[in-house]
Each structure stands twice: as C-alpha cells, then as structure tokens.
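Students often ask why inverse folding is considered easier than folding. One informal answer: many sequences map to the same fold, so there is more than one right answer. In these notes we will look at a single instance of the problem. The structure comes first.
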C-alpha cells in the first residue's frame, strides 16, 4: 500500500516538473549532432532574426521540426509574418501530421489570425495526438480559453 502511494506521488511530481519545463521542441538539445541546436539557442534567447538566419543556414525543409521552428520564429518575430508562419506549420504537419509543437503553435497562430474554428481543430488533433494530457494540449487549451474570455480576441501570454 505504501509503495503504491509512493509511486503515485513520484508520478505526480514527474508530471508537475514536466508541466513547468519549456516546450521540448524549443529548448536547445544537448546532442552535438542536432543541426537545429544553434537555431533553438537563438529561439530560447528570443532572438528571432538570428533564429531565422540559423534555420536558413541549415535549410532542412524536409524536416517537420525545421518547419515548425521556422513557423514559430516567423510568428514571434517583430513584425510577425503570420502568412509565412502558417505555410511552415502546414508543411510540418504535412510531413508529420501528429507533430505536437506544430499543432499547438499553429493553433496559437490561428487565434492571432482570428480563426477560432481552425484553432479548435488543432486542439482536437492534439487531444488525439497526446496519449496522456500533454503540455502542448494544455497550453493551446488555455490559449483558446483566454481568447474566448477576451471576447474572441487574441491574448498573448
């Protein structure tokens, strides 16, 4: 009985730690073979022009991760390039239809564009893609709730 309780507590602590961590597709990978690591580092530093430059150097257009990071960087840049970001997110999802990062971030993009229907479609796709509730699903669900609470207006976090 005590062992089962200990396992439950450990599992809950693991879930809480995972929820507090930044998105895995954004954080720089410790692998030296990750060609996207320089771009991820620039994204973590919120240096969008440098991230875009790094991604252009790598130019892995057949990679869902590359397309997702390019879409993310274009969406976050100042000024944001939403139309181009959408193209890269869509390409990431064409390559890997259950790419959780692309599903979440394209859902946020659709909220920025005022397209709640598409954001909710992405949320439904995330619900199916996540075996258990995942960070990407929870984040997009909160973004949709903020959008609705603000009278169908995008609220950045």
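Output (designed amino acids):
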């Amino acid at each position: 009985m005590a062992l089962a309780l200990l396992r439950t507590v450990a599992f809950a602590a693991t879930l809480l730690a995972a929820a507090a961590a930044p998105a895995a597709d954004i954080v720089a990978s410790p692998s030296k073979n990750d060609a996207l690591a320089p771009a991820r580092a620039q994204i973590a530093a919120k240096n969008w022009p440098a991230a875009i430059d790094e991604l252009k150097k790598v130019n892995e257009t057949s990679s869902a991760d590359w397309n997702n990071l390019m879409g993310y960087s274009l969406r976050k840049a100042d000024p944001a390039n939403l139309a181009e970001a959408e193209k890269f997110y869509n390409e990431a999802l064409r390559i890997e239809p259950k790419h959780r990062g692309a599903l979440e971030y394209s859902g946020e993009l659709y909220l920025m564009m005022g397209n709640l229907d598409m954001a909710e479609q992405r949320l439904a796709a995330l619900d199916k893609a996540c075996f258990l509730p995942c960070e990407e699903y929870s984040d997009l669900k909160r973004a949709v709730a903020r959008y609705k609470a603000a009278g169908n207006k995008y609220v950045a976090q």
